[in-house]
Amino acid sequence: MKKIFLILLSISCSQMAFANNPMFGTDTQNSMTLYAGQGTGSGSLFKLVDPFLWDFEPMTVFMLQYSQPTEVFRLPSRINLSFVQNFGYHRDHGLSFMAVGISWDIAVINWNGFYLGAGIGPYMRDSRDRYVESRLVFGEKFFIGKNITDRWRAELFTLHFSNGDFTEINHGFNYTGLAINYSF
Fold this sequence. Notes:
With 184 residues, the protein is mostly beta strands. The protein has one helix at residues 2-16; strands at residues 31-39, 59-72, 75-88, 97-111, 114-125, 136-147, 152-162, 173-183.
């Protein structure tokens, strides 16, 4: 496992140390991204990376995100302001919520127009429910993006919201979906 991590780290550093930020177009300083995702069941953060654990639920999330480019340890990244709307329907109607948050996404691999990354940040929800008892949650995201043109990108993502076991009830929310990004 250590060898794989070191190989990925060396590839990403060699490709990106002095390259443009793959999550933004040439000479752009802003981007807007629209995320649309399907609920993949409550549970831990590990559900993000193991599709065999996904249990599709009657839940849909939309997230509008404004971003600006930055760097974290010389890796291209973006700082985000996000507005989230989760729609629970049928038996999960009571799980609907709105949230606002900030997050940081880092592109760890940038290769031939594709990029792979992860993000994390705090969000404040407007309600409590049977999945997560607190209004403060943390969002963790993994994504694979593709530069379509200089201004447009598409990303496949998985997203997890939970409160890190700060309260007794913390089942978490998990989603997978597609995002469209425009840089300006």
